[in-house]
Write a structure and sequence with these properties.
With about 210 residues, the protein is an alpha+beta fold. The protein contains six helices and nine strands, in the order H-H-H-H-H-H-E-E-E-E-E-E-E-E-E.
Length: about 210
């Protein structure tokens, strides 16, 4: 008698929860943003004020948080700093290189078995990832083995490593795929994968988080 592995929390849910302790973004300081943009262009207060068509004292007060500029002043500032008005309120991207990397040797990923798949989590040492990569052995042989459609937020990439599968989706005809074939799809669309080869197929899945 085949034993069904006990139900476990969704692999995707676990990965998303691992990044929930990220700090809330801090409100943007317009004065600091303007000063940072000006200095990145190598401009003095006088030069930036001249390019923007503003008085030096006005620009100084804006940078020091001593006055709130009108929309007309914001348009002049944006022109002088060679950006759009919305970019004045967009935090600068962090230019630092984190150097994060994780290597998962074959067979060493954390196992996460379900009734239909045997998942192996890859790059498990990294938290707060933007993507969830995992290898899966597809044990299911028919749609009836699933408890309805699998669906979740985000997008998903599938690549067949060995064997052959049938990708069944909510809005398209089933597609048979073999080694080397791949698919990219909206994961909120119902989807299931079954093996159609003699041996259980293995696939690589990459899901956005």
């Amino acid at each position: 008698m085949t034993r069904t592995p006990p139900a476990q929390p969704s692999l995707i849910k676990l990965a998303r929860e691992s990044g929930q302790d990220a700090p809330d973004p801090q409100p943007l300081d317009l004065g600091q943003r303007v000063r940072s943009l000006r200095k990145s262009l190598g401009l003095t207060l006088e030069q930036a004020a001249g390019q923007a068509g503003l008085a030096r004292s006005t620009l100084s007060k804006i940078e020091n948080g001593q006055m709130s500029p009108t929309y007309e002043a914001l348009k002049k500032l944006a022109t002088g700093l060679e950006i759009s008005v919305p970019q004045l309120f967009t935090p600068p991207k962090d230019a630092r290189v984190s150097g994060r990397m994780a290597v998962t040797r074959s067979g060493e990923g954390a196992a996460h078995p379900t009734a239909t798949y045997e998942h192996e989590l890859l790059a498990g040492a990294l938290t707060k990832k933007a993507m969830l990569p995992y290898r899966a052995r597809v044990r299911a042989r028919s749609f009836d083995e699933f408890d309805g459609w699998v669906r979740h937020d985000g997008e998903e990439f599938l690549y067949v490593l060995t064997g052959a599968i049938r990708l069944i989706t909510e809005f398209y005809e089933p597609i048979e795929m073999r080694r080397g074939d791949s698919a990219y799809y909206d994961a909120s669309m119902g989807h299931n994968v079954i093996s159609v080869s003699d041996e259980d197929a293995t696939i690589l899945w990459v899901t956005s988080l």
